[in-house]
Amino acid sequence: MRFALNSDQAALREAVRDLLRAECPPAVVRAGWPGEPDADPARVRRVWDQLAEMGVLGAAVPEADGGLGLDAVALVGLLEEAGRAALPLPLMETAFVAGPLLAAAGETTLVERLVAGDLIVAAVLDGSGLVPYAQVADALIVGDARSIGVDIRQQPTAALVTPPQFEPLRSLDGARGPGRVPADAGAALDADAAALRAAWERGVLGAAAQLIGLGRTLLALSADYVKERRQFGVAIGTFQAVKHQLADALLALEFAAPAVLRAAWSLDSGAETASRDVAAAKALASDAALQVAATALQVHGAIAYTVEYDLHLYAKRVWAGARAWGDADWQRARVAAALGLLPEEALR
Amino acid sequence: MDLTYTPAEEAFRAEARAWLEANVPHGLASGDTAEGFAQHLEWERRLYEARWAVVSWPERYGGRDASIWEWLIFEEEYYRAGAPMRVTQNGIFLLAPTIFEFGTPEQQDRILPRMAAARDLWCQGWSEPGAGSDLAATKARAVRDEANGGWRLTGQKTWTTRGAFCTHMFGLFRTDPDSERHRGLTYFMVPLDTPGVTVRGFGRLDGDEGFAEVFLEDAFVPDDAVLGGVDRGWSVAMATTGSERGLTLRSPGRFLSAAERLVALARERGAGEDALARDRVVRAWIDADAYQQFTLQQVTEIADGGATGARSSLNKLFWSQLDVRLHEAALDLLGPEAELDGPWSRGFLFALAGPIYAGTNEIQRNIVAERVLGLPRK
Fold this sequence. Notes:
With 348 residues, chain A is of the alpha+beta class. Helix content of chain A is 54%, strand content 8%.
């Protein structure tokens, strides 16, 4: 029994964290908001190129297809770091969902480009056709692969849409630049049901990992702020009303994070409980991140209710991410089904 | 990351499971009544004879030298088998770790074997009428008795769990009369049959006589009743409260087992039809599972030589709130039957104490905020 990253996984995570701390500060997150005065797609793309150089984009692609062939345990550590930096690009969708799925579908040319950093993929598999990051993507994967396990009647489906076709929409988080993809767009991916369901589970888990990282940044910003901000002649962090909210926010994060790592291990080891564990992890991560975001806004006060202060860059990502890839209620329904408390059909 | 146990650990689990299945008694009266306490003691002595009472202790004290992983496994199996609550827990889980850390070899040899065998039964003497969350306000005092080589204790302790049934008490007394707050306190271990000690049991929320107040009037204890040095009681006591808040008192096995029983109750009651009731059940189940994952991560850190420190307050906050929610979900499923005396209503009343004992959850939040998040004290 050992519940921790191994030294290679930890070192890679550390390297990604250092890279993003240096290369993806809040100014770069702002640069990822298309159409805004600070928009600078080239600058954002440079971060992507550096991630490609480190091998991160192909991290989950099998070695035979030119990737690193890393498992989910390694990936969730990296995605937590992407969340911590609020990286304004679909790293999770490209590296964790699309990379292995395109490899499974035999799209070798696309996989090569993806690994090299030459193909940003936006992906959504919840049947909504509403694809975050469509506006910056070179290819889209759109489908419905929601499932609670392998024994489900409805066949999962996914189409590859390249070049992207979509109706651009505005998101509350400008960096997500979403688009609505027509139902008949693209061509069906040549991937079997197991590969599609695995892609769905990776997306759910990756979303959870990013939420943990976002939560950590929001909490760190808040703890720093209440140490400095003075009212009534003292730092507001001395007030119990403030301390207790932040303690509760940390509590939620600290109990969601191990659930994410365990779910990754369940996926890697092919555990029978893998879907249930992924669902529980996303439910915990969504709730924790929403709680941290609400607390962060509250303890900052009015300064957080501006777009000039950086907090909104992370909070808006949480408000979107908590609902993407199945919100907490939906994920808990999956867990209920796995526990025999709900018929599987009820989830559709 | 490897969430599997070794063949040796699995063999340990199988041995524990087989023994527990064959030996666990059912239907004992409450361990917080005189009659039930005697029944529980009989069980504790059977555990001891089969060397399951204190698995993580050295063999010479009645243990198995079990690793912390094996201890976790034993806890899982213990609660999975529906075994009774441990009336020895305040000794074996709270005092013993402190004796292993601060006790002299003589104290260890004298106290630990009798504790393991449930011959000496230990209760805590922390709270006083004027010192609850504010433990440093302790007023009970110890006055030096040089002629007899010891100390004379005077004061009042209260909320002492199972004090009316125990034989010994550990707690803090002020040895330096001029001291204030955390200084000048000493950790004493006191036989409750010492002349000058009076114990009065009284009813807890469930009506059982599980509480006691302990009055001390010039009660003499020898020098070897001091644990960890005169006037050093605060740091010694903090080591014990760390155990209580953290892992040792409330291992995940207990909540995993309760969560499984909750899910079984929900199935039996057809709760799948009621989305809100179902969601409460699933939340409780997920939280119990999350506590297990958190613990596995924490034990890995401990096995790697790390210390939990102030983070043990996170454990305490989480399990105490989880326990309440879990039992509330069960009572919701029971509906009008929730008020009837039974395992869920009793478990609910027990759970309600969790956010209060071992340092209230408000104190824990202060500790987390100040010592984990680094917020200023003043």
